[in-house]
Amino acid sequence: xxxKCRELSIANEPLGCTIxxxxxxxxxxxxTHKYDKINENEKYxxxxxxxxxxxxxxxxxxxxxxxxxxxxxxxxFRIELDRRxxxxxxxxxxxxxxxxxxxxxxxxxxEALKIITNTKGKLIVx
Length: 126
Prior knowledge:
five-stranded antiparallel beta sheet; alpha+beta
């Protein structure tokens, strides 16, 4: 899966950290589509680390794509990042996403990816 990211969303909340790359800008989507209609042409990739609610659970790592067959739990994965591209390899699959982000957005993305990768994944920042 390859696409150009037009909207980057990062949320680090008490229950987890989520990063979403999308080739559509949400505001534009809702101007041209009904709320109950899914944009089948939209490409997106979402990474999520969910924190446990008690001491008996462990963190849960997932990847979700518009191609649901490739979505699922992340056990071992590798991420390469520079200012122009995000690349992730998992389960013999690869996704490359073109980026156009400023320095501040890049720094926030690096910090969020450090949270997402934790001990499960490998992060290479160029």
